[in-house]
Amino acid sequence: MSAVTTNGTMTALRVGIIGAGFMGEVHARAARAAGADLVGIASRTLASAQETAAAFSVPAVAGLDELLALKPDVVHVCTPNDTHPAITAQVLAAGVAVVCEKPLAATSADARALVNAAAEAGVVNAVPFVYRFHPMVREARALVQQGAIGAVLSVQASYLQDWMLLQTDANWRMSDGESRAFADIGSHLCDLVEFVAGDRIVRLSARSRTVYAERGGQPVHNEDIAAVLVEFASGTIGTLLVSQMAAGRKNALEFELHGSEQSVRFEQEKPEQLAIGTRAGTLMRSRDASQLTPDAARLSVVPSGHPMGYQDAFNGFVRDTYNAMRGVDSDGLPTFVDGLRAAIVTEAVIASARQAGAWVAVEL
Hints:
The protein is an alpha/beta fold and 364 residues long. The protein has two domains: 14-130, Rossmann fold; 135-304 and 335-361, Dihydrodipicolinate Reductase, domain 2, CATH 3.30.360.10. It is built from ten helices and 17 strands. The chain has helices spanning 22-33, 46-55, 63-68, 84-93, 108-121, 135-145, 181-197, 294-299, 310-325, 336-354; strands at 14-18, 37-43, 60-62, 74-77, 97-100, 125-126, 152-160, 201-209, 214-215, 218-219, 225-232, 237-243, 252-259, 263-267, 273-278, 281-286, 360-361. The strands form three sheets. It has a nine-stranded mixed β-sheet. Strands 3-2-1-4-5-6 form a six-stranded parallel β-sheet, with helices on both faces. Helix 5 links the parallel strand 5 and strand 6 (125-126). Helix 6 crosses helix 7 (181-197) and helix 7 (181-197) crosses helix 10 (336-354). The longest helix has 19 residues, at 336-354. The radius of gyration is 21 Å and the shape is globular. Residues 1-8 have low confidence and may be disordered.
């Protein structure tokens, strides 16, 4: 854990990363941006860790045991999904803080066990629902909290990609767990909608579709598309569409909340703006820290006119996680409890889709 030195400054946190793929690199850049000391990057073998470790000029190590031997203050788990519970449990048992990539676990039972283990260990824990850290997402949330849009009446949201559009498109995720599209990106969408609305989905009706039974000569075990009708605790109703077969959409996460006075719309691919709808027309609010609410301004780390994006949001998430390790309360930090919530919602979607869209209750 970071300690205060004799001159009152904070020593850099010692950070270890397990998982040397794309997400491991994203986490490493965010850790560096937060001023951390990267002590090692681990993978299943030393060889698989070396290329990424070399890119960041840090030691490469083979496996979690060697990484923990380096005495990190926090470990970032960026390995394949099915390995998350075992690796995270071992890190917690060592009394080390954890940032675990989503999904925290494939089942709510495993996710709940990690929530309990983290509480017993008494360490900071976090799951990267990083879209919460776009400044204009925080601005949308503030507008809802302030009552500026009135009572939220309905929600329209979608997360669309096209990387699985063709039958020749194949990926390990198509056989990883009972859900792919919803567990992978729908979990982000639900977390973001609940976060901004300040409300919880209490029941849902879902339909899903697996377009190809086989891809690349391998059977497909989960869905390509999911459509979900949701009802919130307040009575708000909404629709969610998740697809990894939407041609031309690369990472199109969008939500729109319709209030009794105004509406608010955010598009992840246009993160510098927020659309405010009124009866008189639609106003575009641009990111300008001098005009934003305090929480949004806090995350606006470059001057207006200089675009911020995904890595900036990730950096904000990691910065807040490390601040929490130093005892600084960071509003909106997603923890293992939020990872558990995602697992519960995903299980409800799977259960409803199997029952041809029957309504299923969602409970934490």
